[in-house]
Every structure is written in structure tokens, then in C-alpha cells.
Amino acid sequence: MVAIVGKPNVGKSTLLNALVGQKISITSRKAQTTRHRITGIRTEGATQFVFADTPGFQTRHSTALNKSLNKAVMGTIGDVDVVMLVVEAGRFTPADAKVLGLLKPGIPVVLVANKLDEVGRRAELAPWLQEVAAKAQFAEIVPMSAKNPKDVQRVFGILEKYLPEQPWFYGEDELTDRSEKFLAGETVREKLFRFTGDELPYTSTVVIDKFEEEPSPKFGRMVRIAATIVVERDGHKAMVIGEKGERLKRIGMEARQELEKLMDCKVFLEVWVKVRSGWADDEARVRSFGYE
Ligand SMILES: Nc1nc2c(ncn2[C@@H]2O[C@H](COP(=O)(O)OP(=O)(O)OP(=O)(O)O)[C@@H](O)[C@H]2O)c(=O)[nH]1
């Protein structure tokens, strides 16, 4: 069991997807796009790596949503064999220190200095590496780029050393223990953020209202999905819908195409947009949307 922790936007989801070898978690330029603990599984030779992705640790705002996110981080890091603490190479901020402070003593921590490709000259990194080495007893410090396949491959050999000998938890071909319904919500959310760029606040979410499966003589299997994008303001709703509904159409179309590939079946997807102002501050509502 490997936990991937770190403040928002350092590249945890990118790293998880690269390690699993297939897109499981969503990534975006916007901070805090990962809201759930997502398990990705990779079996390499005799070793099975089970990864837990965690939401970026939010320290700035303290809404009900953020409290629930922070609880999810705490829940993940308690019971794993090794923790990968992801930071950006050349930077160790107070937010990184805060995440480090949450880690349970006794569990080995591999410090991943990600986005190495953004560091101009590697020699410049040496003093920084020395500085961070003094911050804690890291099992290893790994400067790398989650976008470089060679670096990612090297990570398996590093993590392996910290894993116990025991039977595998999952089958060799399994990639995630997440349901298709969950993946449907994540996929719509990824497209939503991709097509709205930085305009839409991260408090917008996606709720799956319907997920019905039926056999189909023509396609083998068919799934009907209804999704609602919940935003906080009328202005955000207009933004999501776009001119003449173009943007919403695009979000729905791309999400449907991706889901058909992911689930290997015919998908009918309806996407609606609703306004719920202030939902991020309402604890009961946060729970009803599935964030505990
Ligand atoms: N240049 C470069 N960019 C990267 C690398 N890894 C991730 N990124 C980019 O960094 C941004 C954030 O990546 P994510 O994987 O979504 O980050 P995250 O830590 O999961 O973010 P949260 O979900 O907010 O916690 C995206 O634009 C990625 O493409 C890397 O090795 N090099």
C-alpha cells in the first residue's frame, strides 16, 4: 500500500496515472481537482503496488468541504507501507511542511521532487536537496518528472524495497476498485474543468443522478447516465452552458466518448446544470454529495 500525498497542484494525479499506466484519477491545471481517495493498482512481476491518491491538502480556506478533504488525507496516510510525499523540485513551502507534519511516524516517506523538467539546470538543485534532506528522515529523495516514463519506471524499484511480503490484495489485471458510477462523475468533472479553464471555482461539482445498465442486442451492453453539474452562481451556470449551449454539449460529448472507451460499452449521457449557492459551506450538503 502506497499513499501519494502533497499539497494541491504538485502533480499527484499525474504521477498516479503514470504509475498505474492508465488514466484513473483526473488531472487539471486548477488546484484541488481530486476530491476522493482513488486507488490505482499496478502489478509488476511479483509485486503489486496499491496506490491511494489524496486530495490536495487545503490550508487556506476552512469550509466544510475543505474539512472533509483534510479528513480524507488523514484517513489515507495511517495504514500504508510507504508514503510518497510529492513537492515541486526546488520548492518546499510552508504548505508542504504542513503535509509533512501530518504523516505518521514510523512509516517510511519517499520525498518526490516532481516537475524536474521545469528546473533549468540540475546543478542548481543540489543546495535545495541538501536543505530538504535536513527537514525530516526521508527514506529517499527522488528528483523526477511524472511526465517522464523513465523516471516513473524507476519509482517501482524504489517503492518495492518498502513493501512487505504478503499475498496480493487484488487480481493481476485490476486497475482500480472504484465503481463505474464514480468514474462517470470524475470523467464529467474532468471535462467540465478542462473546458471552463480557470474561470470556474473548484467548489463546482458533479452529481450522478442516474446510472442504469441494460443489455442491448445491438451494442452488447448499454449504460444510461444522467449527471448534474452543481455550481454556486447563475453566472457560473451561464459559463458552463456557453454560447448557444456549445460548451455544455462539448463537455457531454467528450465525457461520453471517454466513458465508452473506459467501460467498453454504449453510453447515453445527459448533463444538466444547477445552481446551489453556498453548498461548499453546508456540511450536510457536502455529505449528501458523497464527501464524508
Ligand atoms: N512540467 C511538469 N508538469 C507537471 C508534472 N507533473 C504534473 N504536472 C502538471 O501539474 C499540474 C497539476 O497536476 P495534478 O496531477 O493535477 O496535481 P495534483 O497534485 O494531483 O493536484 P490536486 O488534484 O489539486 O491535488 C498539471 O497541469 C500537470 O500537467 C511534471 O513532472 N512536469
Q: Explain this structure to me?
A:
The chain is an alpha/beta fold and 292 residues long. It has 2 domains: 2-160, Rossmann fold; 180-288, K homology (KH) domain (GMP Synthetase, Chain A, domain 3, 2-Layer Sandwich). The protein is built from 9 helices and 9 strands. It has a 6-stranded mixed β-sheet with strand order 2-3-1-4-5-6, with helices on both faces. The protein has a 3-stranded mixed β-sheet with strand order 7-8-9. Strand 2 (38-44) and strand 3 (47-53) form a beta hairpin. Helix 6 (180-196) runs antiparallel to helix 8. The longest helix is centred in the C-terminal third of the chain and has 18 residues, at 246-263. The two termini are 22 Å apart. The model has no long low-confidence stretch (mean pLDDT 83). Bound molecules: guanosine-5'-triphosphate (GTP). It is a peripheral membrane protein. This is GTPase Era. Monomer. Residues 224-277 form the KH type-2 domain. Belongs to the TRAFAC class TrmE-Era-EngA-EngB-Septin-like GTPase superfamily. Era GTPase family.
